[in-house]
User: What shape does this take?
Amino acid sequence: MIYEKPRIGVYICHCGSNISPKVDVEAVARFAAGLDNVAVSRDYKFMCSNPGQDFIVNDIKQMGLNRVVVASCSPRMHEPTFRKACEKAGISPHYFQMANIREQTSWVTADSAHATQKAKDQVAAAAARVAGHAALTSREVAVQKSILVIGAGIAGIQASLTAAEAGYDVHLVEREPSIGGHMAKFDKTFPTLDCAACIMTPKMVEAAQKENIHLHTWSEVVSVEGFVGNYKVRVRKKPRYVDMEKCTGCGVCQQKCPVKVPSEFDEGLAFRKAVYSPFPQAVPNTPVIDKDHCIYFQKGKCRACEKFCEAAAIDFNQADEFIDIVVGAVIAATGFKAFDPSPLTAYGYGIFPEVYTSLEFERLNNATGPTAGKILMKNGQPPRKVAIVHCVGSRDRHYRKYCSRVCCMYSMKFAHLVREKTGAEVWEFYIDMRSPGKLYEEFYNRVQEEGVHLVRGRVAQITDITDHPEDAGCLTVVAENTLARRVLRVPVDMVILSVGLEPAAGSDAVSRMLGIQRDADGWYNELHAKLAPVKTAASGIFLAGCCQGPKDIPDTVAQASAAAGEAVSLLSRGTVRTLAEISYIDPDRCSGCRICVDMCPYSAISFDDGAGVAVVNDALCQGCGSCAAACPSSAAGIRHFNDGQIMAELEALT
Amino acid sequence: MSAFEPKIIAMVCNWCTYTAADLAGTSRLMYPHNVRIIRLMCTGMLDAKYVLKAFLEGADGVFIGGCHPGDCHYINGNLKAARRIPGIAAILEQFGFSSERLELKWIGASEGPEFQEHITRFVETIRALGPSQAATAMIL
Amino acid sequence: MKYGFYPGCSYKSEAGYKESVEAVCRAIGVELRELPDWNCCGATSMISMDAENAHLLTARIFALASKYGFDAVVTTCNACYTALRKTRKILKADAGLLAVINHQLVAEGLGITLLPKVRHLLEVFYQDIDAAAWTGKSPAGIGDIAVAAYYGCQLTRPWGDVDHPERPQMLDEFIKRLGYTVVDHSARTLCCGASHFFPYQDQCRPLVDKIIAEVRRKGAQVVTTLCPLCQLNLDAGQETRKGPPMPVPYFTQLAGLALGLSPVALGLDKLLNPIDTLLRKIR
Assistant: This one.
């Protein structure tokens, strides 16, 4: 680049009477005229007006200016205006600097002389700085027209359907044998008591049938590389040992398999076989063989499934298969796992058979569950009295300090279902009843009217020691009724622990792969809690559902649609423009210490082993300057905020 | 002899404290004229040499304003600044003058009154400390 | 193995604790050296009334350990155990208080040079002694005796660092190691009434009843304890009209039986609710 001597034009704005009487603008303009490299200095009533901007444009054209300083309001107000004027006149918009003499001087300084002096210093600093400005460029990068969705619960399915509907290719990856996630386990959903299967199954089928949704079940994402618009993704398809093309889903293999394994889908309340589909409506309904429990894999003989499979679909020789795909955006929908209440021994989970977690109860109550939807105890009898304990693991500083948001509502749903199906007496123990949501409070009122005992108090203990001989065999729930100020001891037949939500197992690995930040509890961080609820700090990575924090089905579906909308917005734009004001690393100065690599919050700096230097990925860098400040050899710097520019300001201001 | 008027350099984050300073302006909150503001994109880009340079050039105090923890626009740049400041303060102490001359405050974008308050108090602190000898003391 | 031993006030007057501790330790090769001139541990009451002097009282025991060169003090009582551990924790964290206390101890020519570890004899038996030392000698029929382990409140609380605070296992595991049948039950850490039992018998009897009823319901033939006050309350406070008497031997007495020692040498004849019928099971 040919060095041009800076020729600066300085423009001091009166801003009507906002700057002018306090700051002696004529004096500032005269002062500026004497500064180094200043070719012209003017003051004007309103610099942001069209005539004001025309001064700048004409001066650049007629006087050959190549740098511009405007002293007026905050750059947050009119920097874009003046940058456009520069561009219009044919010079780089980055050859512009603003001195904020209104918000930060005339409006906040009592004395006129002081304000004028401050404005002079600011103008001097801006002129000194702008002399060292460089014309920056950014580039357009094409965006791949496909989306990766990780996790095929209701969030992942909804996001996939929305994006696919817009015409984009979607790769939906699910680590379980079937899509459906937690919602597939539920029977009824609050507050409308819709049948979960009735509203879920059509979506699952639609996801499977949509031509541009590529379903990868029994698969895991193993690596994600690249940047917004261009992510290279590797998916590991685990061996099903059942040929998906040949299998007809007849289920004979499952009937003939001699091995019984506690069913994960039924929360261990029923058994599945070693070759299994997790549930009858599974999508796809091709079973998988669980290698760890299959007698053939463990002991070398059996092959009963193979023998009886008319379609000859069993294939014991299958191995891991790796699929490489390229996508423009990623939606994380990794969901949650239920809190394991075993550490809370006072509640007796795992000790007393009639203490259930909420997910276990969902299966107990489900028409496709182990009891065909009848609420029965382990002895086959219906319970006469049921206790529901809220906030197990939630709002508890020993475990999870946050509110899991869904438990109050599903607990009331349980109360309703127990009342409806068994007529049993129901005791709910809550800390605070939280029912904010459309028709939620109404549902609370309905449950109250159904004769459920609602006790405000945290349960202290659940014990099999009973107070009266006639309660033998019961569990006693001990709690303080904090409204009545007395301790209650309620003998019941069955206890449901309303366990909280935790980030899904393995969600930490996914977050590292995608460069998503997690909060102290492990939930994925959105870019902004209010204004960017589905974006993440990693551009092109979006969030859907419980991976971002506990939420119910309506919120999950809404957020999933929003995530798909953001992804589609990115894809339909077609290109992304990289930021101009980003980091650079001078390879001649870089010593290869890699401090910057660890400092970068966006994983935008990688190390070039061949050259022995750190390299900035301009598509990922956001220009925070962490690398620049940390670099011991001053090799890293931020364009438009480099050492020379800041030092020039410092020298002029002091 | 005229009263000592300290020279203060404030290096502040674009997303929070700079915005708070603008808000102080729109709310017409008066504060001492002594402060000169330099806009950074993030306190995480605050290099120790900027602080030292300010003192060498004759600043009597340096004020750093960043986002509250958890609010950083760049995830955690403010925390990086928070870790860096004690190190810079230690250097100042080594040269024999008070590390009170360097202050880091979290001032959110909506905290115009807080900006006014912190700046006013900081100027008073520096005024009480008297002129910095840094420009001469730090030249070895 | 040699340990400094702090017997505490209830050790020698109780139902065969002393006899069984001594007999078992002799048989197993554990040497408990009683700290000469030991004093009251303050139990739970002293610290709630005058913390500073409570710590001084307990610290004096540590100083005796220092004087006689023990790096561990063993107790056989849950109250002593907690009182000692509480003071140890506080002194460990507060060098200033330790200095003040040492200054006060100087008058006696004492001083804490090393804060000794505080161990319950159960920990010594369970953790320090090789498991094989307990097994092998068990007389036939031991396995026919169903034992409920009762921990009381102070072994695992308030810190929950020794064992689970609500559902401890160590005594169960030890009793299992000895060859007995252990019954799982829910009364492990229920309150026995402690020192309130005698002034407030009406209130405390139901507490003991609840414990006895629970272990009986779960099929226990004896309930074993590791604290003199628990033993006294469960044994003496038992409402025998509600069922056959439930013997309440110390864990050391059960250990002695498993080692083949004679019931009389273990002081088993001193139990208020006789254990004789069960002893007949042992051949």
